[in-house]
TrEMBL record:
It is found in: Cell membrane. The lineage of its organism: Eukaryota, Metazoa, Cnidaria, Hydrozoa, Hydroidolina. It is a multi-pass membrane protein. The keyword Acyltransferase does not apply. This is G-protein coupled receptors family 1 profile domain-containing protein. It comes from the Eukaryota.
């Protein structure tokens, strides 16, 4: 369920990047490519961050709920969590398109507040959670190993 981290990047960002570097004369095409590149880059980046959060949370639950993990973390719940968080990322990555008309070349206009919010809540906090989770997992696994050796 959590497996596709790099596929969206390869399918969407790289073609937009290649188009951005090509010699296109149409202003409308250039605007579409500019917006498409920025949007696809942001959604795949933040989506990857959220996927790492999901994987870290899954591993934490696997250690904390060793005996009841399969009852709590079902395939259905994992799919719901994944779809919910990707929807969250999609909605947040659409915010820079509001208002839809912009005087700039690219309509994808990132406000400073949006950028700060995204970096803090969708990159920094998930990575702190993952680091703390894996520290906890390491401690628990060491405890289990010491109990089995004793």
């Amino acid at each position: 369920v959590y497996g596709w981290r790099d596929e969206p990047y390869g399918c969407f960002v790289i073609p937009f990047y290649a188009a951005k570097k090509s010699k296109i004369d149409s202003i409308e095409s250039k605007k579409f490519i500019c917006d498409g590149f920025r949007f696809s880059y942001m959604i795949t980046f933040y989506g990857a961050c959220i996927n790492v959060l999901l994987i870290g949370g899954d591993r934490l639950l696997a250690i904390r709920l060793m005996t009841s993990y399969k009852l709590v973390v079902t395939r259905r719940r994992a799919i719901i969590a994944t779809i919910s968080l990707w929807t969250y990322v999609l909605v947040l990555c659409l915010i820079p398109f509001v208002p839809p008309e912009s005087e700039k070349f690219c309509r994808y206009n990132q406000q400073d507040e949006w950028t700060t919010f995204m970096l803090f809540f969708n990159t920094l906090l998930p990575y702190i959670f993952v680091i703390v989770s894996y520290m906890y997992i390491t401690v628990k696994l060491d405890e289990i190993q010491q109990k089995t050796q004793a």
